Amino acid sequence: MESSKRVLISECNMLIGKEVVLKGWVKKIRQLGKVGFLLLRDRTGLLQCVLEQEQNQVKIETESVVQVTGILVKTDKTANGVELQVSEILVLAEADLLPFEINKKKLNVGLDHLLNHRVLSLRHEQINAIFTIQSVFVKGFTDFLMQEGFTRIFTPKIVSQGAEGGANVFTFNYFDKSAYLAQSPQFYKQMMVGAGFERVFEIAPVYRAEEHNSSRHLNEYISLDVEMGFIENVEEVMEMEKRVLQYVFQYVKERCQKQLDVLQVDIPVLNEIPKMTLAEAQAILKETYQKDSPEGDLNTEGEKCIGNYVKDKYGSDFVFITNYPRATRPMYTMPNKENPELTDSFDLLYKGSEITSGGQRIHRKGELIASFREKGLNPNEFKAYIDSFAYAIPPHGGFGIGLERIIMKFLNLGNIREASAFPRDCDRLIP
Ligand code: ATP
């Protein structure tokens, strides 16, 4: 063996006749008479390795990590048209007895068990595909925004105030003070717009002390946050969100067809997104579905019905719900000019579930202070945020998308935990 440089499985069909070293996990071993067949897996695919004579005497547990050396030969017995005639096999790390059988095409194991043994379950083709797609999804999101002149920012997750109001903030001791884990980067992304960047985005964890264990809430999730300055109106913000999603959907489709096939997911082209006001949505719920809505919002059931409604009527998986009342939107939300009881805000529903909140923000200091007071909040407690408006921040708006929430919907997963490698919920702090 001249060199022991590792070759990847995806490169093997170009190296037929060559002696190579491969490293990976043992997906399966089976014996056929005197010959052993080892199915090797690395991050690029699977390769059949043929073990004869003394190589076949080595005892190896499935999912162990091995290094195999041998000659690549052409074959018509495997999908990639190549197999390895093994001359040497080394076990680099031995796997223990596995808690469930990982090599089935479809795992018949409960979600909790899969999450408890995450390093193992993530190796399964269908589970692995979710996170490969998630990674490409985020790359597409980043690429599009940077092409559009956005700067990627990083803002603190240890904060002195919750930005979204409500009780769902985690509090902890920060030396001699009390501090919070950021519920959203809202204040900081607005400040960065004002800091001269005009257009910013952040991809980072946010924390919500939700006490209910629902199938669509986590206590830590990744927020895809966007904020843009010098806008004329909230329509521009919705347009930007539509365009970024159109780009990302196409981007993933072009790069992850294999993984989409594994998950049996078809990604349709995203066209126009219909819009309706919250009042219209609530009227539809009342008239068509005989459902009442909570004051100034939609509940989970309502989101589902509206999702069905737009699918039937417009063939769309998405719908923007606009003009939420001031009472149910945060203090920084821009009131609507024609009807100041309403706001220039929106949610985006995808397959009957909210994936985004967004809107135009108040950009004048005096109006912002008044809005805090109207909400019964003391502006002095938000001084650092409010003071930044003294240096003049342009008209601006933005939105936040929950990454795990959109991936769950994108891939038709039944539970948001499936879209998180290591989910945090009320009961789960490990692994
Ligand atoms: P919901 O009504 O679904 O609880 P929210 O109105 O509290 O959401 P926002 O504060 O508007 O959510 O957050 C914006 C987006 O962040 C949501 O549309 C969703 O995609 C995501 N999100 C919010 N809370 C959670 C959570 N606990 N777990 C996962 N994603 C979340």
The SSE order reads EEEEEEHHHEEEEHEEHHEHHEEEHHEH
Q: How is the CATH topology of the largest domain named?
A: BirA Bifunctional Protein, domain 2
Strand arrangement in the largest pleated sheet: 7-11-12-17-16-15-14-13
Structural class, from secondary structure content?
A: alpha+beta
> How would you sum up the major sheet?
8 strands, mixed
Q: What is the architecture of the largest domain at the second tier of CATH?
A: 2-Layer Sandwich
Question: What overall geometry do the principal axes of the alpha carbons give?
Answer: elongated
Can you tell me the CATH class of the largest domain? Alpha Beta
Bound molecules: adenosine-5'-triphosphate
Helical fraction equals 25-40%
Radius of gyration (CA) equals 26 Å
Low-pLDDT parts are: none
Calculate the terminal CA-CA distance, rounded to whole Å. Answer: 41 Å
Content of β-strand: 25-35%
Describe this structure in words.
Catalyzes the attachment of L-aspartate to tRNA(Asp) in a two-step reaction: L-aspartate is first activated by ATP to form Asp-AMP and then transferred to the acceptor end of tRNA(Asp). Belongs to the class-II aminoacyl-tRNA synthetase family. Type 2 subfamily. The protein is elongated. The protein starts with 5 loop residues before the first strand and ends in a 21-residue tail after the last helix. Strand 15 and strand 16 (about 355-360) form a beta hairpin. Helix 3 crosses helix 5 (about 235-255). It folds into two domains: about 10-95, Nucleic acid-binding proteins (OB fold (Dihydrolipoamide Acetyltransferase, E2P), Beta Barrel), CATH 2.40.50; about 120-420, Bira Bifunctional Protein, Domain 2 (BirA Bifunctional Protein, domain 2), CATH 3.30.930.10. It has helices at about 110-115, 120, 125-145, 185-195, 235-255, 255-260, 280-290, 300-315, 365-375, 385, 405-410; strands at about 5, 20-30, 35-40, 45-50, 65-75, 80-95, 150, 160, 170-175, 175-180, 200-205, 220-230, 275, 320, 345-350, 355-360, 395-400. The strands form three sheets. It has an eight-stranded mixed β-sheet, with helices on both faces. The protein has eleven helices and 17 strands. Helices cover about 30% and strands about 25% of the residues. The chain is an alpha+beta fold.
